[in-house]
Amino acid sequence: MTGNCAVILAAGEGTRMKSKKPKVLAEVLFKPMIDWVIDSAKACGMEEENICVVTGHGREQLEAALPQGVQTVVQTERLGTGHAVMQARDFLRAHGSANVLILGGDAPFMDGETVSMALQYHTRANSAATVISADVTDPTGYGRIVRDGNGDFSGITEEKDATEAQKAIREVNSGAYWFNIQALLVALEKMETNAKYRLNAAKEYYLTDAIEILRSMGQRVTTFNSRSEDVVLGANDRDQLAHLNEIARQKVIRRHRLAGVSIPFDTGVIIAPDVRIGRDAEILQGTILKGKTEIGEDAVVGPNSVLENCVIGAGATVTQTYGTDVRVGEKTQVGPFARLRPGTQIGADVRVGNFVEVKNSTVGDGTKISHLSYIGDTDVGRNVNVGSGCATVNFTGKEKFRTTIGDHAFIGCDTSLVAPVRVGDRAYTGAGSTITEDVPDDALALGRARQVIKKDWVKVKNPYRK
User: Fold this and answer.
1) How far is CA 132 from CA 115, 129, 171, 244, 440, in A?
2) Using CA atoms, how far apart are residues 320 and 306, in angstroms rounded to an integer?
3) Which one of the listed residues 83, 95, 256, 371 is annotated catalytic?
4) How large a percentage of the chain has pLDDT more than 90?
5) Which end of the chain is more exposed for a tag (fewer CB within 10 A), N or C?
6) 177 lies in some domain
7) What is the DSSP letter of 306?
8) Cα 193 from chain centre
9) With contact defined as beta carbons under 8 Å apart, do 142 and 172 qualify?
10) Residues 275 and 403 in one domain
């Protein structure tokens, strides 16, 4: 392996989260914090194979959640950030004399732009190490950036070891760094073999001691101020996690508004960071957009719609609808109170109305499924009309079969199509029919019993009638 790489520290348990999952799998806008951090590393041009995650607590669960190709090493003992990076030495050696980005797995707002700009600065300055810093309102708990009388960087002091004067410093270490790999390996070796580097309050190997070692060797160490207080933020409990979610929610909403998306009232609006929305689209109250959902230009979503990994075409309207892993064509109307289930592809200018459920089906352009119907495992043609109360009966109790409905067909109200069955082009089914055999093109199918009337039946059989 060659080129720049990243080591992400993610071995912590996060006991205050009171979760069965590792802390870095806690979600901000439905996306695990570790995924935010990995995306920041990838923004510097790294492929997954050039990213190494240091795991520990919940190792198996975390490794299963990581993107394919990401490397892992294990920190079996929690002996500090320096010790965590030591576990990745073989990974670092494989990358030669390139640079390594060190990130905390629970710092989702250390964004790609910041780390990319820090790399440029690090490279231009020919530094052995660059510390990414930030000025914060409340520095409590963070390592302080200490400077000499000329304002030049002279070191990092952890909160536990800081004097009262140092605790008043507002410029703090974000926990993110760029290192020259060879310089870092030398520093780690010296740290491990010199007992003084564990004579701190926590009796741990601090990664910040690598900075001290490099400076003592005459190596150049610089700082890059991110200009954003948010890059240092993490979450140790659910209350702090909720705070991160609200910060992220407002950032994402603002980004879309500035890009030309109409979000007139953001009450209850939650948009995941990887969602893409076209210009002049409108997102209404109570709408939740998750995963990698894409909304086309001029589309209207909401109020009170939830879409996950959906693609909504330009000019479509999706109202009070729950959809997962579906595609909706241009100018199609969905809802209110519709459910679109995985595997569904709906064409252009379609109407999927109230209390309609569509699952694992294709629906052709111009088709109308207006109300109270279930379409499952079905291929519906173009310009089909499906009446109220229809269902494709796709499950025998053991197996599922598909139904096919041809172009321009008319499915009468309360029709049940028992799969496997095909209704031909331009064919009709009578209201109330149960169709169990294929219907030819241009035919009318009736599958219902003849109406029988029994006069005075109620008087005879209902003793409560007076």
Assistant:
1) 8, 10, 10, 20, 71
2) 8
3) 371
4) 86
5) C
6) yes
7) E
8) 42
9) yes
10) yes
Q: How far apart are CA 385 and CA 282, in angstroms?
A: 29
Q: What is the CATH number of the domain that holds 68?
A: 3.90.550.10
On the question of pLDDT at 136 being above 60, the answer is yes
User: In whole numbers, what is the pLDDT of the chain averaged over residues?
Assistant: 94
CA gyration radius, the chain? 30
Residue 466 has pLDDT above 70, yes or no: no
pLDDT digits (tens, 9 = 90+) for 166-223: 999 999 999 999 999 999 999 999 998 887 776 666 678 889 999 999 999 999 999 9
Is residue 115 included in any domain, yes or no?
A: yes
Per-residue pLDDT tens over the stretch 62-91: 999 999 999 999 999 989 999 999 999 999
Average pLDDT over residues 230-234: 95
Q: Judge residue 113's burial from the number of C-beta atoms within 10 Å of its C-beta, 0-12 exposed, 13-18 middle, 19 or more buried.
A: exposed
Note whether 212 and 279 are same-domain residues: no
Residue pair 56/11 in contact by the 8 Å Cβ criterion: yes
Asked if 207 and 305 sit in the same domain, the reply is: no
Active site residue 122: no
**Terminal Cα-to-Cα distance of the chain (whole angstroms):** 90
User: Is the residue at 413 inside a domain?
Assistant: yes
Q: Indicate the residue type of 142.
A: Y
Q: Clarify whether residues 199 and 272 are in a common domain.
A: no
- Distance (Å, whole) CA 465 – CA 457: 11
Which are the contacts of 199, defined by CB distance < 8 A and separation ≥ 6? none
CA distance 294 to 301: 11
One-letter amino acid at 172 equals V
Return d(Cα 239, Cα 237) in angstroms, integer.
6
Q: What type of residue sits at position 384?
A: V
Inter-axis angle of helices 33-42 and 112-124, nearest 10: 40
Total of domains in the chain: 2
**Cα(66)–Cα(72) distance, integer angstroms:** 9
What is the CATH classification number for the domain harbouring 338? 2.160.10.10
Say if pTM beats, i.e. exceeds, 0.85: yes
Buried b (16+ CB within 10 A) or exposed e, 258-274: eeebebeebeebbbbbb
- Tell whether the model's pLDDT for residue 459 goes beyond 90: no
Closest of 325, 302, 303, 328 to residue 313, by C-alpha: 328
